[in-house]
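Re: that chain you flagged

S.,

Sorry for the slow reply, it's been a week of failed gels. I finally had a moment to sit down with the sequence you sent. For the record, here it is as I used it:
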Amino acid sequence: MGEPPAGPPTRTLPYTLVITALVLALAAATLAALALGSVRIPTANVIQILTGNADPSPYRTIVLDVRLPRVILGAAVGAGLAVVGTTLQALVRNPLADPFLLGVSSGASAAAVSVIVLGVGAGMATTVTIPAASFAGAFLALLVVYALAREPGGGFTTTRLILAGVAVSYVLAALTSLILVVSARADHLKEVLYWTLGGLGSARWDMLALPLTVLAVGTALLIALARPLDLLLVGEEGATVLGLDTARFRAGVFVLTSLVTGVLVAHSGAIGFVGLMVPHAARMLVGAAHRALLPVAALMGAVFLVVADLAARTVAAPQDIPVGVLTALTGGPFFLWLLRRGRAREGAAA
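Prediction finished late last night. Pasting the C-alpha coordinates below so you have them in one place:
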Protein backbone atom coordinates (compact mmCIF):
# COMPACT_ATOMS: atom_id res chain seq x y z
CA MET A 1 0.00 0.00 0.00
CA GLY A 2 1.21 3.52 -0.72
CA GLU A 3 2.57 5.82 1.93
CA PRO A 4 0.00 7.68 4.01
CA PRO A 5 -0.40 11.34 3.14
CA ALA A 6 2.54 13.25 4.52
CA GLY A 7 1.92 15.96 7.06
CA PRO A 8 2.90 17.15 10.49
CA PRO A 9 1.33 14.99 13.19
CA THR A 10 0.39 18.05 15.23
CA ARG A 11 -0.75 21.57 14.45
CA THR A 12 2.04 23.97 13.77
CA LEU A 13 -0.08 27.14 14.03
CA PRO A 14 -3.03 28.11 16.25
CA TYR A 15 -6.16 26.79 14.54
CA THR A 16 -8.23 29.94 15.09
CA LEU A 17 -5.45 32.03 13.56
CA VAL A 18 -5.32 29.81 10.47
CA ILE A 19 -9.09 29.89 9.95
CA THR A 20 -9.23 33.67 10.45
CA ALA A 21 -6.37 34.26 8.03
CA LEU A 22 -7.98 32.06 5.36
CA VAL A 23 -11.37 33.75 5.73
CA LEU A 24 -9.71 37.14 5.32
CA ALA A 25 -7.73 35.83 2.33
CA LEU A 26 -10.94 34.57 0.73
CA ALA A 27 -12.62 37.94 1.31
CA ALA A 28 -9.64 39.76 -0.24
CA ALA A 29 -9.54 37.38 -3.21
CA THR A 30 -13.28 37.83 -3.74
CA LEU A 31 -12.98 41.61 -3.68
CA ALA A 32 -10.08 41.51 -6.14
CA ALA A 33 -11.96 39.14 -8.45
CA LEU A 34 -14.98 41.45 -8.46
CA ALA A 35 -12.90 44.55 -9.15
CA LEU A 36 -10.41 43.28 -11.73
CA GLY A 37 -10.95 42.03 -15.25
CA SER A 38 -11.30 43.34 -18.77
CA VAL A 39 -13.30 46.17 -17.14
CA ARG A 40 -11.63 47.48 -13.98
CA ILE A 41 -14.00 48.67 -11.28
CA PRO A 42 -12.80 50.80 -8.34
CA THR A 43 -12.82 48.87 -5.08
CA ALA A 44 -14.96 51.53 -3.41
CA ASN A 45 -17.62 51.05 -6.09
CA VAL A 46 -17.54 47.27 -5.60
CA ILE A 47 -18.08 47.66 -1.85
CA GLN A 48 -20.97 50.07 -2.45
CA ILE A 49 -22.57 47.63 -4.88
CA LEU A 50 -22.20 44.69 -2.46
CA THR A 51 -23.71 46.68 0.41
CA GLY A 52 -26.63 47.86 -1.73
CA ASN A 53 -25.64 51.53 -1.66
CA ALA A 54 -24.94 51.92 -5.38
CA ASP A 55 -27.34 53.22 -8.03
CA PRO A 56 -28.12 51.02 -11.07
CA SER A 57 -25.21 51.19 -13.48
CA PRO A 58 -23.13 49.01 -15.85
CA TYR A 59 -20.73 48.43 -12.96
CA ARG A 60 -23.54 47.04 -10.84
CA THR A 61 -24.57 44.64 -13.59
CA ILE A 62 -20.99 43.44 -14.10
CA VAL A 63 -20.41 42.85 -10.39
CA LEU A 64 -23.72 41.26 -9.41
CA ASP A 65 -24.76 39.41 -12.56
CA VAL A 66 -21.44 38.43 -14.16
CA ARG A 67 -18.57 38.30 -11.68
CA LEU A 68 -20.18 37.44 -8.34
CA PRO A 69 -21.82 34.17 -9.52
CA ARG A 70 -18.49 33.20 -11.09
CA VAL A 71 -16.58 33.91 -7.87
CA ILE A 72 -19.08 31.93 -5.78
CA LEU A 73 -18.93 28.97 -8.17
CA GLY A 74 -15.12 29.12 -8.18
CA ALA A 75 -14.99 29.13 -4.39
CA ALA A 76 -17.41 26.21 -4.22
CA VAL A 77 -15.55 24.13 -6.81
CA GLY A 78 -12.15 24.87 -5.25
CA ALA A 79 -13.40 23.99 -1.77
CA GLY A 80 -15.10 20.81 -2.97
CA LEU A 81 -12.16 19.50 -4.98
CA ALA A 82 -9.80 20.20 -2.05
CA VAL A 83 -12.07 18.35 0.39
CA VAL A 84 -12.46 15.41 -2.00
CA GLY A 85 -8.70 15.26 -2.60
CA THR A 86 -8.00 15.28 1.14
CA THR A 87 -10.51 12.47 1.65
CA LEU A 88 -9.23 10.33 -1.22
CA GLN A 89 -5.66 10.62 0.04
CA ALA A 90 -6.81 9.20 3.36
CA LEU A 91 -9.00 6.49 1.81
CA VAL A 92 -6.19 5.01 -0.28
CA ARG A 93 -3.36 6.15 2.02
CA ASN A 94 -1.54 7.76 -0.87
CA PRO A 95 -0.33 11.37 -1.08
CA LEU A 96 -0.80 11.39 -4.87
CA ALA A 97 -4.53 10.68 -4.79
CA ASP A 98 -6.60 13.39 -6.46
CA PRO A 99 -9.96 13.42 -8.27
CA PHE A 100 -8.21 14.42 -11.51
CA LEU A 101 -5.30 11.96 -11.33
CA LEU A 102 -7.56 9.07 -10.30
CA GLY A 103 -9.84 9.59 -13.27
CA VAL A 104 -12.82 10.74 -11.20
CA SER A 105 -12.99 14.17 -12.84
CA SER A 106 -12.46 12.56 -16.25
CA GLY A 107 -15.35 10.18 -15.64
CA ALA A 108 -17.64 13.01 -14.62
CA SER A 109 -16.54 15.15 -17.57
CA ALA A 110 -16.94 12.33 -20.10
CA ALA A 111 -20.46 11.59 -18.86
CA ALA A 112 -21.40 15.28 -19.00
CA VAL A 113 -20.06 15.61 -22.55
CA SER A 114 -21.96 12.49 -23.59
CA VAL A 115 -25.21 13.97 -22.30
CA ILE A 116 -24.56 17.25 -24.12
CA VAL A 117 -23.62 15.66 -27.44
CA LEU A 118 -26.31 12.98 -27.41
CA GLY A 119 -28.96 15.45 -26.27
CA VAL A 120 -30.20 13.26 -23.42
CA GLY A 121 -32.85 15.05 -21.38
CA ALA A 122 -32.22 18.29 -23.24
CA GLY A 123 -34.92 20.20 -21.37
CA MET A 124 -33.42 19.37 -17.97
CA ALA A 125 -29.75 19.10 -18.96
CA THR A 126 -28.35 21.88 -16.79
CA THR A 127 -30.33 21.18 -13.63
CA VAL A 128 -30.79 17.40 -13.61
CA THR A 129 -29.34 15.33 -16.45
CA ILE A 130 -25.76 16.62 -16.54
CA PRO A 131 -25.21 16.51 -12.74
CA ALA A 132 -26.75 13.02 -12.56
CA ALA A 133 -24.63 11.76 -15.45
CA SER A 134 -21.51 13.38 -13.98
CA PHE A 135 -22.06 11.64 -10.66
CA ALA A 136 -22.53 8.28 -12.37
CA GLY A 137 -19.43 8.81 -14.51
CA ALA A 138 -17.30 9.86 -11.54
CA PHE A 139 -18.41 6.90 -9.44
CA LEU A 140 -17.87 4.34 -12.20
CA ALA A 141 -14.44 5.74 -13.02
CA LEU A 142 -13.41 5.56 -9.36
CA LEU A 143 -14.63 1.97 -9.08
CA VAL A 144 -12.64 0.95 -12.17
CA VAL A 145 -9.46 2.65 -10.93
CA TYR A 146 -9.91 1.07 -7.50
CA ALA A 147 -10.35 -2.39 -9.03
CA LEU A 148 -7.36 -2.01 -11.36
CA ALA A 149 -5.02 -0.67 -8.67
CA ARG A 150 -5.95 -3.08 -5.90
CA GLU A 151 -3.36 -5.80 -5.34
CA PRO A 152 -4.22 -9.41 -4.35
CA GLY A 153 -3.47 -8.63 -0.72
CA GLY A 154 -5.85 -5.66 -0.76
CA GLY A 155 -3.26 -2.87 -0.79
CA PHE A 156 -2.13 -0.21 -3.24
CA THR A 157 1.13 1.08 -4.56
CA THR A 158 1.74 4.56 -5.89
CA THR A 159 2.68 3.19 -9.30
CA ARG A 160 -0.41 1.01 -9.69
CA LEU A 161 -2.75 3.75 -8.50
CA ILE A 162 -1.38 6.43 -10.81
CA LEU A 163 -1.11 4.09 -13.80
CA ALA A 164 -4.70 2.95 -13.28
CA GLY A 165 -5.89 6.55 -13.04
CA VAL A 166 -3.98 7.63 -16.15
CA ALA A 167 -5.19 4.60 -18.11
CA VAL A 168 -8.83 5.22 -17.20
CA SER A 169 -8.46 8.93 -18.02
CA TYR A 170 -7.04 8.13 -21.47
CA VAL A 171 -9.82 5.67 -22.21
CA LEU A 172 -12.46 8.18 -21.16
CA ALA A 173 -10.80 10.91 -23.25
CA ALA A 174 -10.84 8.59 -26.28
CA LEU A 175 -14.48 7.75 -25.63
CA THR A 176 -15.33 11.45 -25.45
CA SER A 177 -13.54 12.09 -28.74
CA LEU A 178 -15.34 9.17 -30.37
CA ILE A 179 -18.73 10.48 -29.30
CA LEU A 180 -17.84 13.92 -30.63
CA VAL A 181 -16.70 12.55 -33.99
CA VAL A 182 -19.76 10.37 -34.37
CA SER A 183 -22.07 13.29 -33.60
CA ALA A 184 -20.44 15.26 -36.46
CA ARG A 185 -21.69 18.59 -35.14
CA ALA A 186 -19.25 21.50 -35.05
CA ASP A 187 -21.33 23.39 -32.49
CA HIS A 188 -20.39 20.79 -29.88
CA LEU A 189 -16.67 21.52 -30.13
CA LYS A 190 -16.71 24.59 -27.89
CA GLU A 191 -18.82 22.90 -25.23
CA VAL A 192 -16.60 19.81 -25.22
CA LEU A 193 -13.47 21.97 -24.98
CA TYR A 194 -15.05 23.72 -21.98
CA TRP A 195 -15.69 20.44 -20.20
CA THR A 196 -12.27 18.97 -20.89
CA LEU A 197 -10.27 22.09 -19.90
CA GLY A 198 -12.47 23.39 -17.11
CA GLY A 199 -13.85 26.88 -16.72
CA LEU A 200 -16.21 29.06 -14.71
CA GLY A 201 -17.43 31.37 -17.45
CA SER A 202 -20.94 29.87 -17.61
CA ALA A 203 -21.74 30.64 -13.95
CA ARG A 204 -25.23 32.01 -13.34
CA TRP A 205 -27.27 32.59 -10.21
CA ASP A 206 -29.82 29.93 -11.13
CA MET A 207 -27.15 27.19 -11.29
CA LEU A 208 -25.49 27.78 -7.90
CA ALA A 209 -28.02 26.15 -5.58
CA LEU A 210 -27.10 22.53 -6.38
CA PRO A 211 -23.28 22.75 -6.12
CA LEU A 212 -23.49 24.86 -2.95
CA THR A 213 -25.92 22.44 -1.34
CA VAL A 214 -23.92 19.35 -2.29
CA LEU A 215 -20.71 21.02 -1.10
CA ALA A 216 -22.18 21.99 2.27
CA VAL A 217 -23.80 18.61 2.94
CA GLY A 218 -20.83 16.60 1.62
CA THR A 219 -18.27 18.56 3.63
CA ALA A 220 -20.36 18.33 6.79
CA LEU A 221 -20.67 14.55 6.39
CA LEU A 222 -16.95 14.12 5.78
CA ILE A 223 -16.10 16.22 8.84
CA ALA A 224 -18.46 13.98 10.83
CA LEU A 225 -16.46 11.01 9.50
CA ALA A 226 -13.15 12.56 10.56
CA ARG A 227 -12.33 9.87 13.14
CA PRO A 228 -12.69 6.91 10.70
CA LEU A 229 -10.58 8.83 8.18
CA ASP A 230 -7.92 9.29 10.86
CA LEU A 231 -8.05 5.57 11.63
CA LEU A 232 -7.27 4.72 8.00
CA LEU A 233 -4.00 6.64 8.30
CA VAL A 234 -2.72 4.08 10.82
CA GLY A 235 -3.19 1.29 8.28
CA GLU A 236 -5.77 -1.28 7.21
CA GLU A 237 -5.08 -3.73 10.00
CA GLY A 238 -4.91 -1.06 12.69
CA ALA A 239 -8.20 0.48 11.58
CA THR A 240 -9.89 -2.92 11.58
CA VAL A 241 -8.60 -3.72 15.06
CA LEU A 242 -10.00 -0.42 16.27
CA GLY A 243 -13.46 -1.40 15.04
CA LEU A 244 -13.70 0.15 11.55
CA ASP A 245 -15.30 -1.88 8.76
CA THR A 246 -12.88 -0.54 6.17
CA ALA A 247 -14.54 -2.08 3.10
CA ARG A 248 -17.99 -0.71 3.90
CA PHE A 249 -16.60 2.64 4.99
CA ARG A 250 -14.56 3.05 1.80
CA ALA A 251 -17.56 2.13 -0.36
CA GLY A 252 -19.77 4.72 1.33
CA VAL A 253 -17.17 7.49 1.15
CA PHE A 254 -16.39 6.63 -2.48
CA VAL A 255 -20.07 7.24 -3.28
CA LEU A 256 -20.06 10.52 -1.36
CA THR A 257 -16.87 11.86 -2.95
CA SER A 258 -18.08 10.81 -6.40
CA LEU A 259 -21.33 12.70 -5.83
CA VAL A 260 -19.50 15.88 -4.79
CA THR A 261 -17.03 15.62 -7.67
CA GLY A 262 -19.71 14.81 -10.22
CA VAL A 263 -21.90 17.78 -9.30
CA LEU A 264 -18.96 20.20 -9.25
CA VAL A 265 -17.55 18.97 -12.56
CA ALA A 266 -21.04 19.24 -14.06
CA HIS A 267 -20.84 22.98 -13.46
CA SER A 268 -17.14 23.70 -14.02
CA GLY A 269 -15.69 21.00 -16.24
CA ALA A 270 -12.60 19.01 -15.25
CA ILE A 271 -10.26 21.26 -13.25
CA GLY A 272 -7.16 19.34 -12.27
CA PHE A 273 -4.65 19.27 -9.43
CA VAL A 274 -6.60 21.38 -6.90
CA GLY A 275 -7.31 18.24 -4.89
CA LEU A 276 -3.65 17.24 -5.07
CA MET A 277 -1.90 20.46 -4.04
CA VAL A 278 -4.24 22.00 -1.47
CA PRO A 279 -4.37 19.07 1.02
CA HIS A 280 -0.57 19.04 1.29
CA ALA A 281 -0.46 22.77 1.97
CA ALA A 282 -3.26 22.45 4.53
CA ARG A 283 -1.44 19.68 6.41
CA MET A 284 1.61 21.90 6.71
CA LEU A 285 -0.56 24.38 8.63
CA VAL A 286 -2.75 22.22 10.88
CA GLY A 287 -1.49 18.64 10.72
CA ALA A 288 -3.24 15.49 9.50
CA ALA A 289 -6.25 15.23 11.88
CA HIS A 290 -9.23 15.47 9.54
CA ARG A 291 -11.62 17.35 11.84
CA ALA A 292 -9.22 20.30 11.67
CA LEU A 293 -7.82 19.55 8.22
CA LEU A 294 -11.00 19.43 6.13
CA PRO A 295 -12.30 22.96 6.91
CA VAL A 296 -8.82 24.39 6.30
CA ALA A 297 -8.51 22.50 3.01
CA ALA A 298 -11.94 23.78 1.94
CA LEU A 299 -11.00 27.41 2.61
CA MET A 300 -7.59 27.05 0.95
CA GLY A 301 -9.17 25.41 -2.10
CA ALA A 302 -11.70 28.23 -2.38
CA VAL A 303 -8.99 30.90 -2.17
CA PHE A 304 -6.76 29.06 -4.65
CA LEU A 305 -9.38 28.65 -7.35
CA VAL A 306 -10.78 32.18 -7.00
CA VAL A 307 -7.25 33.56 -7.46
CA ALA A 308 -6.52 31.13 -10.31
CA ASP A 309 -9.72 32.15 -12.11
CA LEU A 310 -8.86 35.82 -11.60
CA ALA A 311 -5.50 35.16 -13.27
CA ALA A 312 -7.25 33.26 -16.07
CA ARG A 313 -9.46 36.30 -16.75
CA THR A 314 -6.74 38.93 -16.58
CA VAL A 315 -3.50 37.40 -17.92
CA ALA A 316 -4.63 37.62 -21.54
CA ALA A 317 -7.63 39.98 -21.15
CA PRO A 318 -10.05 40.29 -22.80
CA GLN A 319 -9.47 36.63 -23.70
CA ASP A 320 -10.66 34.21 -21.03
CA ILE A 321 -8.20 31.34 -20.49
CA PRO A 322 -9.76 28.12 -19.12
CA VAL A 323 -8.83 28.00 -15.45
CA GLY A 324 -8.00 24.30 -15.77
CA VAL A 325 -5.03 25.26 -17.94
CA LEU A 326 -3.53 27.39 -15.16
CA THR A 327 -4.14 24.79 -12.44
CA ALA A 328 -2.42 22.19 -14.65
CA LEU A 329 0.56 24.50 -15.17
CA THR A 330 1.00 24.78 -11.39
CA GLY A 331 -0.10 21.26 -10.49
CA GLY A 332 2.13 19.42 -12.98
CA PRO A 333 5.43 20.58 -11.40
CA PHE A 334 3.97 19.97 -7.93
CA PHE A 335 3.08 16.40 -8.92
CA LEU A 336 6.60 15.78 -10.21
CA TRP A 337 8.03 17.19 -6.96
CA LEU A 338 5.88 14.79 -4.93
CA LEU A 339 7.05 11.87 -7.05
CA ARG A 340 10.69 12.86 -6.58
CA ARG A 341 10.24 13.29 -2.84
CA GLY A 342 8.61 9.87 -2.63
CA ARG A 343 11.53 8.25 -4.45
CA ALA A 344 14.00 10.02 -2.18
CA ARG A 345 12.18 8.65 0.88
CA GLU A 346 12.13 5.16 -0.56
CA GLY A 347 15.87 5.40 -1.23
CA ALA A 348 16.54 6.62 2.30
CA ALA A 349 14.45 3.81 3.76
CA ALA A 350 16.33 1.22 1.71
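What I noticed first: Residues 50 and 288 are 37 Å apart (CA to CA).

Talk soon,
D.
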